[in-house]
Amino acid sequence: MISVLAVDLGKTSCRAALWVGEARTDAEGAGAPGLASVGGMELAEAAILAVTRPLLRAAGLARVDAACIGAAGALAAPDAARELAERVGLRLPAERIAVASDAITSHAGTLGGEPGLVLAVGTGAVAMAIRPDGSMCRADGLGPWLGDEGGGAWIGLHGLRAALRATENRGPATALGEAARVRFGADLAAGIEGDANPARLAAGFAADVANAARAGDAVALALIGQAAACLAGTVRAAASGWPGPDPIRFVVTGGLAELGNILTDPLFAALRGGSPALDPATARGTALDGARLLAMDTSTIHERHVFRAVAEKSAEHGLDLLATEGLRPGLEDLDQRSPAEIVRLVLDAELAAQGALGRAAPQLAAAAEAVAARMLAGGRLFYLGAGTPGRLATLDAAELSPTYSAPPDLVVSLLAGGSGAMIHAVEGAEDDADAAAIALEVHGLNADDAVVGITASGRTPYVVRGLRHARVRGALTVAIVNNPTSPASGEAEIAVEILTGAEIVAGSTRMTAGTVQKVALNAISTAAMVALGKTFGARMVDVRASNDKLRRRALRMVCEITGADQAAAAAALAATGNRVKPALVMLLGGVDAAEAEQRLFEAGGRVRNALSAATIRPARS
Description:
This protein is α/β, with parallel strands linked by helices. It has 23 helices and 16 strands. It has helices spanning about 40-60, 80-90, 100-110, 150-165, 175-185, 190, 200-215, 220-240, 260-270, 285-295, 310-315, 340-360, 360-375, 385-405, 435-440, 460-470, 485-490, 510-530, 550-560, 565-575, 580-590, 595-600, 605-610; strands at about 5-10, 15-20, 25-30, 65-70, 95-100, 115-120, 125-130, 135-140, 250-255, 280, 305-310, 380-385, 410-415, 450-455, 475-480, 495. The longest helix has 22 residues, at about 220-240.
């Protein structure tokens, strides 16, 4: 049975849940100040191990298959998050381990891995909107000294200040003074000073403020109202820029949400009627459920915000625990399943991969537009790849010439190991870091060109080094990868991260990763060919009619577009060397073949422009 450890490390507490199969055991201990604070990583590690090690011992486990830690401050301190993942992964130990912000795990658990906006209110306060494409808009969560406005520490601190003002006759009388004395003793300052986690201490007093507000205390009620207003502003900031007209699914979660209507009623009142519209929903799960999801699933919209560690057994080889190298849960018995079951698994995986493509659509569109612009300006397109990605790129490049009459040097695929690697694997070719740079120089790479590197892992030396060389040369660089925050992405001007996660057969990225790579290449090259005028509407009017099938297609296109009968269409094609574009201009423009060729030349090869009023001139006599 698979064992999964989930951790929710906040500033107040550290909660953990261990799943062995579907059986769950929970534990809780003290929190930590946050990864962005001084010594935050070491304190976080100690807090996590103090809770999780006894949990594993009680379950009789020496290790876990997967673990994910949601840690306060991970977004603000990514280096500390990565180090925390590596250190905790080695000391638990864990086969696969990830660290994300506690806001990310909360979002994933609350919305079941789906897009939406979550206001997490505990000791701190942060609103996080994750859009359908995986992009994030985050507001506050800046910690108790700079932000977390309206959170538990904020409410508690303002309540304690009000209590102190009242006891010194510097402010209005309030029941908070007595509540503070009960909690901290007669000498409030002495009871508070010196605590290792002052934010946690202040947050504990938030419950007293809420109780006083329920009892009608004017000062406490005002504080709760101010907190609700702060939280509403934070939510609105996170909601800005949400795409589309549909309401945003919105959930309030966290320890402070347990205060109930005394806080949520004024919060929802402050949010009512704003834009974009919010659709309040019930939480599907908790931050621990979110951590479990992210530990096991590397294809969610949250993946680009997750830090995954290097496993001890693979650190020597530098493989990281890449999502594409992972093992899909529940497939330990794959070798015992029937062909029909395996076919269904593969088909389901391919269907699920379409969601990863959809989330990467904005980056893919940006890449297609940028490549098309370079080619329109006279540049060329180079593909770099090894193994399956390189073969797919070679296939895409090879098909452009017959389909669009593209010159053979317009789109060039450089495959690690050379053309022979198209049929037979060339061992070690992908590790030749200098080969791609040399090949690009042989082809005279210049700043007008575009270079697209394709690598599932995102770390193939042939591709990474080639992209770096292209960037130095001033060429446009695009990376198509299947893992987040990879070296290839770091070398590219545009990174298209299509996060497909683990394969049905672990590490076999010719499968789902290969499918989305093919789609991505199709999108880029098709957009470029359309921009170059290789189509008329949705028809491939620049097709090279080199066989019977294509000659028949050419004839059909001319008939359908012009309305001419087959005899007239065949005559036009014969006059233009079986080329569709000039045949169309002949028939639609009422000109001869030479005039059609001239008008196409002046129109940059675009049929529609060649037929426009500005382009058409009287036919030659």
